[in-house]
Amino acid sequence: MFLRIDHVGIACHDLEEKIEFYESTFGLTVVSREVNEEQGVREAMLHVADGPGGTSYVQLIEPLSPETAVGKFLAKRGEGVHHIGYGVADVTKALEEIGGKGIRLVDERPRHGSMGASIAFLHPKDVGGVLTELVESPQPKL
Amino acid sequence: MFLRIDHVGIACHDLEEKIEFYESTFGLTVVSREVNEEQGVREAMLHVADGPGGTSYVQLIEPLSPETAVGKFLAKRGEGVHHIGYGVADVTKALEEIGGKGIRLVDERPRHGSMGASIAFLHPKDVGGVLTELVESPQPKL
Description:
The structure is a homodimer of 142-residue chains. With 142 residues, chain A is of the alpha+beta class. Chain A has one domain: Roll (2,3-Dihydroxybiphenyl 1,2-Dioxygenase, domain 1), CATH 3.10.180.10. The first copy, chain A, has helices at residues 15-26, 69-77, 91-99; strands spanning 4-11, 29-36, 41-51, 54-63, 80-87, 111-112, 118-122, 132-136. Chain A has an eight-stranded mixed beta sheet with strand order 2-3-4-1-5-8-7-6. The longest helix of chain A is centred in the first third of the chain and has 12 residues, at 15-26. Chain A starts with a strand and ends in a 6-residue tail after the last strand. The A-B interface holds A 1-5, 8, 10, 12, 18, 21, 24-28, 48-53, 56, 77-81, 84, 86-87, 98, 101, 103, 124, 127-130 and B 1-5, 8, 10, 12, 18, 21, 24-28, 48-53, 56, 77-81, 84, 86-87, 98, 101, 103, 124, 127-130.
């Protein structure tokens, strides 16, 4: 079902400061910056590697306010890994399959994620404490 | 510097139960099981994807006792993502470069990791709360 580790989602207080850190320390490069009002985050995708199953990124996320889910995460746990995203070919089909096994879904239907992807989250309580995201990348334009 | 997301290290209470979960829910396959006495863990590597930069895995880790680092992590935070491992070509060189930038190193010199790899951890306090591992895979035998 999984084509790749799509990204590691890392929550931080200061997006620009953390981008500068990942660039200067590890040589990663920002390929996208977005504000996702629905998820209440400002974010950046940093390129790690390409493969036949797609690209892997570090995703840095800063909450738009303390009342957002990521804002509450930071207040409770501090900075660190917030979620893991795995690439799938078809997120609707993957949700059906996983939901059919009794795993609780945060998103019953896919919604818009970074860089035009269709995404959905699974409930961390049913995935061993890991907030798990399914990511279907957009089809390349012909 | 990073060739791939080598693995997501996930701490759990019951390794066999969690392996069964990842296999049956997501279709991942165990490619290695090891006990690492030095790190105080029993672990399994589950294959996610191959790419030109190497292979990506989910690593499931169960502490050998509550007194180990992972045992203490579980007691404090519960099950979830414990660390992120990134593939590098030369872990000794990467440690020198990163240490030279003032990042504190958990391991000044590489030690033995999963599947014959040379690994080293960076201090999470200097990497935005993320326990970060560098992984140099063994050279293929000719």
